């Protein structure tokens, strides 16, 4: 018996443990609606323009691919694919507007879940653990890490400054602590920061309650005793530059009184910036632009020099840089709360 236990211990030591993280959407009864398989099928339809070609590239019978798509569409309540006219090359399939939007949301959600799950796994089981990738029938190692690093896709290159120092004079009290459906405005905004970006997030505030909220979400805090919005900008910029050790390519300034912003929107904003890391990137909807805005590294000196209550607007204007606008999914994501009547009950 003792020998058997020793052999088991030896095997455990030499055998690496690897997590397998799968993100699926199910019905209440547990039946799968959407997951890695349908998502990959949609990606290949997008790339090939044909469900037949997509299924063939996955070594999947066309009839099975059709069944997967029809089942997903029936359960989701909208079409994922639509046919396109033929010609010499014959017909094909394209993602519908709803299908493309749903796939984008799923991919963002999946990345966040995987990133968060892997971080917890490494913290608990070991720093060098790699994730099992069922699509590759192997482990995501050095090559995969290299593909997702760098300025074309590494969210760690974007820092976030949550601006939480306002007095709320027009609101009549500290609006950041106002109740929005059982949580404070500040909590709702902080929870919108994507999990993979929280380690590069600093909350600039004058309120101990908000500093504690930030700490509970693994975000840094800088206490701000000064009165103007520009003070928040300078303090946040300085902290991001110091903490990133020169790796910060852009800073996203998120007003804490925009509680209806979505995590997926912030991630899309960051990804768009990483495609144009020398330009400004901001949120907009139907021709209206607003916050948040991401400032590139070239504007950091100007951000450190802002004065008064204009924040970073003057630095953005004087930079003369091109501005890329990312469309918000919902108009209310741009809304900031200045008065009690600005609170959108429908979003609580």
TrEMBL record:
Disordered, as annotated region: 133-152
PANTHER family, alphabetized: MOLYBDENUM COFACTOR CYTIDYLYLTRANSFERASE
Pfam families for this protein: NTP_transf_3
Originating species: [Clostridium] aminophilum
MobA-like NTP transferase domain location: 161-318
GO molecular function: nucleotidyltransferase activity
Protein name: ModE molybdate transport repressor domain-containing protein
Alphabetized InterPro entries for the sequence: MobA-like_NTP_Trfase (IPR025877), Nucleotide-diphossugar_trans (IPR029044), WH-like_DNA-bd_sf (IPR036388), WH_DNA-bd_sf (IPR036390)
SUPFAM superfamilies: Nucleotide-diphospho-sugar transferases (SSF53448), Winged helix' DNA-binding domain (SSF46785)
Source lineage: Bacteria, Bacillati, Bacillota, Clostridia, Lachnospirales
